[in-house]
Fold these 2 entries.
Entry 1:
Amino acid sequence: MTPPVLVLSGPLTRDEVSGPCEALRELLESGGGGFGGVVVCDVGGLGPPGLAAVNLLARLQLTARRAGGRIRLRDPSPALCALLDLVGLRFETEGQPEQREPPLGVQEAVESGDPVV
């Protein structure tokens, strides 16, 4: 099973945040709890990133936290990721390894001269 998905589309204006926040709240109340409180936000259709997108995602993140959940971004553009990084917002994205975990398929090799620990 997969977590619920909230599809976001653009272009956005600063004032268009209440609808998606309410939709996120409803998803968390109805089914997000069964997935660790995670709702996936599909941001592929947001269009060119801007401050309206940053504002929306920050408010969605706050809404999710207040409801005891969290959001995960699906299909963010590299420009959106760079903009979010620039303003200091960190989001979990699909396909990324969790923090402090090596990416799948990476194995540590042992050198023949390494001491046993």
Note: The beta strands are 5-9, 38-45, 70-74, 92-93.
Entry 2:
Amino acid sequence: MSVTSMDYKVTGLSAEPFVHLYGLSETELAAQGVTRMIATEPDSFPDRIEMRDGEIGESFLLLNHEYQTGDSPYRARHAIFVREGATDQFECLNAIPDVMHKRMIALRAFDINHLMVDAEIAQGDAIEIEVQRMLANADVAYIQAHNARRGCYSGRIERA
């Protein structure tokens, strides 16, 4: 049974703010507060650009990123992983990507003034159910998804 009643899209981050970091030395990265890490376990390094888990041996940059840039009390930043070399910004319609689906996700719905109007935690198929419920509220302009356990920004969801 499909729960989709409203078209929505899920997007990862643009690579543009991060490409200047690709290939820098450890010293150059450290000067910018960035740490290079090599994926050593499956499902442990979720890339925020391509919205996929890293494969063992891939290089990731751990950095602080301002994901909520709206001028409101909810303006925020936190640590994220970016796969070094990632360039293709993820976007899909009417589907929750596997990188979110297999994790406990905190969904935070915001209005056009970047004020939070709803929030819920969900996992698996329940994520899409909550997305549909939130988007049915006309006051919701967009939803931010975060990994519930570590708080890292995961992606943006909005009406298509």
Note: The chain has a mean pLDDT of 95.
